Amino acid sequence: MSRYYDIVRLKAGQGIELNDTLVTVDLDKVTPKDVIQNDTEFNSSLHPEHYFYVSGGGSFLFRGRYLLTVKRPLAARVNPGKLSIFTGRAEGFIEWREPWRVVRELFEEVVLFKGEKVFYPRFLPFQEIIDEVYRNHFNDKFSRDFEYTDLFLEAVPLDERILSVVSQGIRSEYRLSLHINSKNDINVLSLFSVDLDPHEIRVLDAEDLNSSREVYLLDIETGNMTALGPSSANPWQVAGTGDMTEHLCAMLALITRKKSGEACPS
């Protein structure tokens, strides 16, 4: 059976403890049979007492108003046809131990252009991850045809909880924005503000260069959205919460400071 990622299944009260402000994950209680590597294994492990650790990613907010989103293709196995942010699953132990590293998914999936320039993200706390992504995934694609220009990111504050991770008897604590969805996926979400006019840039969905996913701007003040790129001539449409993933609903709730779940479908 194919391996696409590495997350772990945790059982409430044994490998994970949760309350309103603190989530404790004990990696020392993880066994090889708890490692999930594909959607078939994930679906067969679904149970009210099981939690899945760890997933995440995020998005960019332009001019404090326009949130970058992506519409998943109808053929997708997960959330087909839904409007989403840029998320994925962990790739193993390093990201289990240091869960903030799953922000990698955002930088792997989104590349911003203007003219012949590629914007190179600059954000010191995550610079190691950003540099690794651009070195391993993008340099060969862009270095000969495009010029890099720095894009300084600013973290948008989101509601945080403490995620306490125990590994080899050592406890580490992280303040992170966590979203646990209806399948008990534990997601670490990040949002970055950028001072760019989104209508003047191009966005490459680097998840799959041959993908049918469409990238959209979601106006958080009106709820309207419009496509970027080849579909940019499409008329503005209202984005209903029923058309959004739980990740996106959770992020909108955090941005607008609504109570948890208020922006999401029931």
**CATH topology tier name:** Nucleoside Triphosphate Pyrophosphohydrolase
Which of globular, elongated, flat, extended, rod-shaped describes the shape? globular
What structural class do you assign from the helix and strand content? Answer: alpha+beta
Note poorly predicted spans: none
Give the termini distance in whole angstroms. Answer: 34 Å
Number of helices: 5
Helix content: 10-25%
- CATH class wording: Alpha Beta
Q: Sketch the major β-sheet.
A: 15 strands, mixed
Total count of strands? 19
Give the second-level CATH assignment, the architecture. Answer: Alpha-Beta Complex
Strand content: 35-45%
Radius of gyration: 18 Å
Find the CATH superfamily: Nucleoside Triphosphate Pyrophosphohydrolase
Query: Number of folding domains?
Result: 1
Order of helices and strands: EEEEHEEEEHHEEHEEEEEEEEEH
Integer average pLDDT: 88
From the structure above, extract its key features.
19 strands, globular, four-stranded mixed β-sheet, 15-stranded mixed β-sheet, alpha+beta, 266 residues, 5 helices, 16% helix, Nucleoside Triphosphate Pyrophosphohydrolase
Q: Can you put this structure into words, describing what you see?
A:
- The structure is a single chain.
- It contains 5 helices and 19 strands.
- The chain is of the alpha+beta class and 266 residues long.
- It has a single domain (7-255), classed as Alpha-Beta Complex (Nucleoside Triphosphate Pyrophosphohydrolase), CATH 3.90.79.10.
- It has a 15-stranded mixed β-sheet that branches.
- The radius of gyration is 18 Å and the shape is globular.
